[in-house]
Specification:
heterodimer, A: alpha/beta, 7 strands, disordered N terminus, B: 124 residues, 84% helix
């Protein structure tokens, strides 16, 4: 389709045609940042459709997103990021979008970096990685070891380098949209880690590009060793299950 | 004799269970697929209550010395199976309600687009 042509022709396509690129922002109580993120995305990708999936927010997230110019899908109750994204992929699939970019509504992801994701050709899933060279995003302590281990494990499973498997900043092309519209894992870590395993097992090509991310404005990642151990355990369970689960279709 | 009393108590319990299941079915509070296992359990209890020798025979055959232990083991297995089945059903229900929630979100958005056509044309 046309999206592929754009990829082949230019190293850094700044914009896709209208109706081709859907930017999905799963949002839960992000009224402080959602409007600004929506405006940034619209400025960076003027032809993109911006869809905010309001995952059961109790604040003004939906109103602010709407008045900033995004389409807003309100879920009746909280489904988690995985559920919100599956709804987004379903929408993209039904409407024939050829690419979906997931961007966090908390402002952690830089909308200007979407172009770098779009620049990658011959991949079905493109992950924006914080730890692949650019930017100075740093995680310390036990959490860092946990993420390292996860990255190593996933890299060996998927067969390409995945330095930031829990990154929620990713681009998904048509084949992967069709898969994720039906099968997007919703459990904890499923939406990031397990989704990669699901995509790999379905024969999709995964690649990563280095991106810069901002520090999270609100909330700090925990460095508590016990929490990290629990995190690691859940990661192992999630990846292990993803490996042995019956492949979709 | 204590044995007879035990038999009477067990029979009453089993019959009461059967009546309860039947009544729930009659009032449409219990679906057939869940009723079956409870009917089987109640009938099994009834049979064992009326013929205690059966329990002893089976216990000997399996190699359990105290027949009541066989009963406990059997009950444990049955309860395990039932709760596992219920967990599975809950998972199924959760998946269905998630799908519905996603669908509701999509439909709501389409409805919004239809109701204010002046603002933004529905992108169809």
């Amino acid at each position: 389709m046309t999206a592929e042509d754009v990829h082949a022709a230019q190293p850094l396509p700044q914009a896709m045609a209208p109706g081709e690129l859907l930017v999905v922002l799963p949002a839960l109580n992000e009224q402080a940042s959602v409007a600004r993120v929506v405006r940034e995305v619209r400025a960076a990708q003027p032809n993109a459709t911006v869809l905010v999936v309001d995952d059961g927010s109790t604040d003004a997230t939906a109103e602010r997103a709407g008045s900033a110019g995004a389409m807003v899908m309100r879920l009746p109750f909280n489904l988690g990021v995985g559920g919100a994204m599956r709804a987004g992929y379903r929408y993209a699939y039904d409407r024939g979008f050829s690419a979906v970019v997931q961007v966090d509504a908390d402002g952690q992801h830089d909308a200007a970096e979407i172009a770098h994701l779009l620049a990658v050709s011959d991949a079905d899933v493109v992950i924006g990685s914080r730890f692949a060279g650019r930017g100075e995003y740093a995680v310390r302590g036990p959490r860092r070891w946990a993420m390292r281990l996860l990255s190593k494990g996933l890299t060996s499973i998927v067969g390409t380098s995945v330095t930031d498997p829990t990154s929620g900043f990713r681009l998904v092309h048509r084949r992967a949209i069709a898969l994720f519209a039906e099968h997007y894992p919703e459990e904890y870590l499923g939406d990031t880690v397990e989704a990669l395993v699901v995509a790999h097992r379905a024969g999709l090509r995964i690649r990563q590009v280095p991106v810069t991310m901002r520090r999270r404005e609100s909330g700090t990642a925990s460095t508590n060793p016990l929490r990290s151990a629990v995190y690691l355990l859940r990661v192992v369970v999630a990846v292990g299950l993803a490996m042995v689960r019956r492949a979709p279709r | 004799m204590p044995g007879e009393r035990l038999t009477i108590v067990s029979v009453i319990a089993a019959v009461a269970a059967l009546v309860l299941v039947f009544e729930l079915l009659r009032r449409r509070r219990l679906r057939e697929k869940y009723a079956a296992i409870w009917v089987v359990i109640a009938v099994g209890t009834l049979v064992v209550a009326v013929f205690p020798g059966l329990l002893r025979g089976v216990a000997d055959f399996v190699g359990i010395q105290t027949p009541s232990n066989l009963l406990f083991f059997g009950s444990l297995m049955v309860l395990f199976a039932v709760s596992l089945q219920l967990s599975r059903e809950v998972g199924l229900l959760e998946e269905q309600s998630r799908r519905l929630a996603e669908e509701v979100g999509t439909l709501g958005m389409r409805l919004d687009a239809l109701e204010k056509p002046s603002d933004q044309p529905p992108d169809d």
